[in-house]
Specification:
With 294 residues, the chain is an alpha/beta fold. It has eleven helices and nine strands. The strands form two sheets. Strands 2, 3, 4, 7, 8 and 9 form a six-stranded parallel beta sheet that branches. A three-stranded parallel beta sheet has the order 1-6-5, with no helix packed on it.
Length: 294
Amino acid sequence: MITLVRRATALCVLGAALTACGTTAAEVAPRPAPSAPAPSSSASRTPTLAPGPAGLTPVFEHGPRTDGTTRGEQDGTRDGKLIALTFDADMTADQGPRAASGERFDNPQLIAALRKLKVPATVFMTGRWAEEYPDEARSIGRDRQFEIANHSYSHYAYTDDCYGLPTVAEDDMRADLERAYTAFEKAGVPNPMPYFRFPGGCYDKAALKELSATGVTAVQWDVVSGDAFATDADAVTRQVLDGVRPGSVVVMHCTRSAAPVTEEVVRAVVPELRSRGYRFVKVSDLVGAANGRA
């Protein structure tokens, strides 16, 4: 689905909080990696969307709204209702001192819970997060249960007026995206996906145009979990369960300091959605389904 609007979501809370982390201009980027990750035999088959009107970066919000019976008409099988849990691993370029003083921007317990529950997931990671937690980034990236996608280098906004976030200059947007891929490569992440999530979910036509040459598909969501800075796990759980539909992309966070109840929410949401006939997949699976490849 192509949408040239900014989504006002519960992420505004996270965006506003990140403002306090620093509003200085983004650091000068080193020589960037290639725009799209170098394809391997498996990555080369990664599904993406065709460019939008006038060649703009395509935007994906959700998969097919079906119960998975279309293929079953042919072979007698059922895929179930597909849903993708996505987790933003946010960290700005200015939060190093806070991490050094003990604040945790990672959440290994959440990743462990997803592994125990055997839930595939897509982690949208900033380059700065990968630099701070290279061992965790590498572990997630090498686990076939997960896939890592791009969430910018520093979590600076790609539009003005994005919940108070510092902004990336239009001419620097591509370099910021590429710098994140460079950080993934240095951390040892194999085959990061050609998917990009705009910080704060904010984008406009100019941003889509600037990133069009990179070959990424922008990935938004249709279910806001509300886990950012939430302390009531039950409320977040209800919000997810009330919002999901077949093909949904749920946005959550992989940051202990900003989303302390997410692990508890996942442990409650997963068995309930499975009991409702949902099957958890990665974003790439939903994009493939939208393209008729799944």
